[in-house]
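step=encode ok
step=design start
structure_in=
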């Protein structure tokens, strides 16, 4: 009997031990350490700038799409980042709703489902523009947060290509932080320009449609930046001349001329991206516009442009910047 009782006791202890699940101690992964940037809100109540922690754990979230989307028809010269900015949604949400594998290639006349009311804090989509193991050098600057009248929150900033190679597929991650520097929500977004030459800069924007309670600052980390060499032959170098900016009924209008500085390649389409700044150099708004061309722009030729945009932060912009991107004419187009 003692032997039987002892065997039963050992069996019970064995079953109890098997019911426990060993929890491994997680290993934190260091995120790129961005430069802390000031926080600006467009309401009278200002939130303090944080001293950001050196690393943040990556959050995982699932995009939530609305059953009542709207349809956008792609126009000549449009890119996905600017379309997302126009509708106040994220690039990743439009990719998910339309099954886009590469957001850099859109067709004129293409119908895009715009998911209305999606959250801006989703994680990157698996298999779509995965982070670059070692992104080419660029910096993030001029970052600011702006509350909107409907309670959403814009994060605007720009990237500066500090390397000697043209960039494409530039992507950053924006993380909202609480007063203790802990992450509350995050999302990825791309630069408005899909081709950024050395020394040039391009804006980005991410909208948090329902920002979490208690946000007090942000952290922006570099996710991706690829060499544009494989697609460089499809772009035409375009210079910007004679720019002028002026207030226009609570908006801001920038005009000037673009010039095809290629020695032999004409440009089938040219678009400009205008970024505005406040007195501290923080990005207050951006918009892209298409240069009207009756025919491809020959080498050395010029064309006029004018772009009117909205801006945040109150007060007229103190400065602005224009980047122009030209594309080789499409066959049969």
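sequence_out=
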């Amino acid at each position: 009997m003692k032997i039987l009782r002892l065997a039963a006791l050992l069996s019970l202890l064995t079953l109890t031990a098997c019911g426990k699940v060993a929890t491994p101690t997680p290993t934190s992964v260091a995120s790129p350490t961005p430069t802390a940037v000031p926080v600006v809100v467009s309401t009278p109540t200002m939130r303090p700038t944080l001293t950001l922690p050196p690393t943040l754990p990556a959050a995982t979230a699932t995009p939530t799409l609305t059953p009542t989307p709207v349809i956008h028809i792609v126009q000549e010269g449009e890119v996905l980042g600017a379309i997302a900015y126009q509708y106040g949604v994220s690039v990743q949400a439009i990719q998910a709703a339309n099954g886009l594998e590469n957001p850099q290639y859109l067709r004129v006349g293409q119908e895009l489902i715009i998911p209305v009311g999606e959250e801006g804090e989703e994680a990157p989509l698996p298999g779509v523009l995965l982070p670059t193991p070692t992104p080419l050098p660029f910096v993030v600057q001029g970052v600011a947060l702006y509350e909107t009248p409907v309670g959403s929150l814009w994060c605007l900033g720009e990237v500066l290509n500090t390397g000697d190679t043209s960039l494409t597929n530039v992507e950053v991650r924006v993380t909202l932080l609480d007063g203790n520097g802990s992450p509350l929500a995050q999302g990825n977004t791309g630069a408005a320009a899909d081709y950024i030459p050395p020394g040039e800069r391009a804006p980005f924007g991410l909208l948090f449609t329902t920002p979490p309670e208690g946000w007090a600052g942000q952290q922006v980390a570099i996710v991706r930046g690829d060499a544009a060499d494989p697609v460089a032959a499809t772009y035409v170098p375009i210079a910007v001349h004679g720019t002028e900016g002026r207030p226009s009924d609570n908006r801001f209008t920038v005009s000037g001329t673009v010039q095809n500085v290629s020695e032999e390649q004409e440009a089938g389409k040219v678009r400009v991206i205008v970024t505005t700044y406040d007195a501290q150099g923080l990005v207050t708004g951006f918009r892209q516009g298409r240069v009207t061309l009756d025919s491809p722009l020959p080498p050395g030729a010029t064309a006029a442009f004018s772009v009117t945009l909205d801006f945040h932060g109150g007060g007229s912009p103190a400065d602005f910047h224009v980047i122009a991107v030209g594309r080789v004419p499409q066959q049969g187009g």
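step=design ok
step=annotate ok -> Residues 82 and 192 are 6 Å apart (CA to CA).
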